[in-house]
Amino acid sequence: MRESQNIEFKRIWKDEYLRHVCAFANSRGGSLFIGMMDDGCVVGINDGKKLLEDIPNKVIHALGVYVEVVLHKADRLEYLEIKVQPNTVPISLKGVYYLRSGSTTQELKGVALQEFILKKMGRTFDDLFMPGTSIDDIDVTPVRRFLRKAVNANRMTPESETDTLQNILLNLKLMNEIGELNHAALLLFGKDPLRFFSSVSFRMGRFGKSDHDLRFQDVIEGNIFEMPDKVMEILRAKYLTSPIRYEGLQRFEELEYPEDALREAILNSIIHKDYTGVHIQMSIYDDRIILWNPGKLPDDIPIEKLMQKHPSIPRNRIIADIFFKAGYIEAWGRGIDKIRQGFRDAGKPDPLFEELGGGLMITLTKGASSNASGKVVEKVVEKVVEKVVEKLSSNQRSILNLIGADRHITAAEMAKAIGISQRKTQENIARLKEMGLLRRIGPAKGGHWEIQVP
Prior knowledge:
It is a single chain. By secondary structure, this protein is of the alpha+beta class. The protein has 3 domains: 7-120, Schlafen, AAA domain (Methyltransferase, Cobalt-precorrin-4 Transmethylase, Domain 2, 2-Layer Sandwich); 123-367, 2-Layer Sandwich (Heat Shock Protein 90), CATH 3.30.565.60; 374-451, Orthogonal Bundle (Arc Repressor Mutant, subunit A). It has helices spanning 18-26, 48-63, 110-120, 140-152, 165-171, 183-189, 227-239, 259-271, 303-306, 317-325, 335-345, 374-388, 394-405, 411-418, 422-434, and strands at residues 7-10, 30-34, 68-74, 77-84, 92-93, 96-101, 104-107, 129-130, 181-182, 201-207, 214-221, 244-247, 250-253, 280-284, 288-294, 352-356, 359-365, 438-441, 448-451. Strands 11-10-14-15-17-16 form a 6-stranded mixed beta sheet. α7 packs across α8 (259-271) and α12 runs antiparallel to α13. The model is unreliable at 369-377 (pLDDT under 50).
């Protein structure tokens, strides 16, 4: 055995190790072994019988939870296993909360502690009610606009449009029985959300060749229900171009980025934003857009799983539901796939998703794929799936897509983008080479990758 998310080794028992028991109870459970070295080697204990009685009493007194303590033997040496079950309510040790992260025990503070307690209670930040608020803090205009969209999307009944504002807010779980509004109501439809939340803004900047060359900028404030449309309107008017093309006599003016995918990325940043953090940032360059919103991914969905089919775990459950009812999003959990597919269909490189600075950063590239075209890359992957579907992993598909977006990309950059180790990335590259799907042209520095069409 090795130390891991649910295993911890200690040479002897100390009362300070109650923090590990606390962390296991707050996480997915686990076992604390007493009488073992860090490498898993059994060195034994001398007071096993006494600890069998003392430890359960110490745990129940300090933490209020029950644990099972088992005495094991190995080569005549005794060691203890303290089995801890996951708890459904937050557990603290002398007012301090601990959580298991990998093979370490960490103390929770600030925003991380708030999110942990909300999660344990089955709550999200947006469904907390704000004392002192009332229906007078709601702007009726965006509410009516939402109702029209929800009825047109067949996600609310036509009768909803004629209902009273109070009933609407109650039915949408935006107001409680005593008339207080929750965070979602104030963010979505508030007259002045900035009065309650300091980071309800979407900041955009147009840059030249470097981050020091800021040419102009805009700040979009106000309720977040109208924010996506305002952002798209300003992008069209000031930041992006719509090249004209003709098919026969028909004239088309399409945005230089796939519009549906770009809108989905903006919606995603607004819906999943951590509204206790800072503002959303969008940086527009000649060849790319970088969009960053505060808020870490759920522990169960790291970056590599984000690129695959995954369950929806919205940070702001009520906000996500309102946007769904309005028809802005089709279904929870499909946003990332829709963004990626939109760029592929437009013959552009796959967007790059990274966790950075406590948030999610998306890089959207304007130009055609550097490996002939995005459609060629997609064709390669499709052909591989048809022929060797049982041999191609999701990480290997991601590597092909990343190389399609940038044939000069390094293995380290791939590892960071996918969310796996560099060693694993090298192993996957080697496998793709063996399969005849990938080859390296030129040296490690100055060369490039080439995808082979089977």
